[in-house]
Amino acid sequence: CLLFPLGFYTSLLLTQTPEHILTQTNNKTVILCELKKEHTGVYWYRWSQERQHFEFLVFSNTLGKATYGTNVSQAKFGVHEARSHSSYSLHISHLQPSDSGTYYCSVPQSSQLLLGSGTRLSVVDALPLPLTTTQTPVSKKSVPWITKSRAASRKDPCSPLVWIPLAAGVLLLLLGLIPTAHRLYRLRRRLWLRVHRQ
């Protein structure tokens, strides 16, 4: 009866943590709500995506007295407050998938309810396994240095790595023979001149 006449507004006066909880069936969890203004107590609501409505769970006043909503189990939901009345925690036990939803802490102000940022609770039978990414190692093939001797031993006789060194060797050999041929030519000419002078 407290829910419907009041408007809902998110407020920076409430700090709610954590933002998201993922847990298994039959576990328990805690949602914390810190207040930055004077209040008479804290309301806790759950937004059900399936039923598309807010469900009132429990109200806890500054004296520690709790008032529960219709069909809300006191054994499942409990509210604990700090001595300074500046923070409240909602304890939920014996979790089931039906408990999944977004939970809000709230304080009344005039004709409004100031809401926290919300905590999305997801209850599953088994937690998903972390994804293991297997990376294929990149094969780093070493590029061999090709020497003249290795190139000459290749089967392909038309390979440039074969005939270029050979051609260079022949050219060097020919260049080395030119001075020798020149000396032989001069020596032959001298002998020819001596023979004809006599």
UniProtKB/TrEMBL annotation:
One of its GO terms (molecular function) is MHC class I protein binding. It is a single-pass type I membrane protein. Keywords: Adaptive immunity, Disulfide bond, Glycoprotein, Immunity, Immunoglobulin domain, Membrane, Signal, Transmembrane, Transmembrane helix. One of its GO terms (cellular component) is cell surface. It holds the Pfam family V-set. It comes from the Eukaryota. The chain crosses the membrane at residues 161-181. One of its GO terms (biological process) is regulation of immune response. It is found in: Membrane. Residues 5-122 form the Ig-like domain. PANTHER family: T-CELL SURFACE GLYCOPROTEIN CD8 BETA CHAIN, T-CELL SURFACE GLYCOPROTEIN CD8 BETA CHAIN-RELATED. This is CD8B protein. It comes from Pomatostomus ruficeps (Chestnut-crowned babbler).
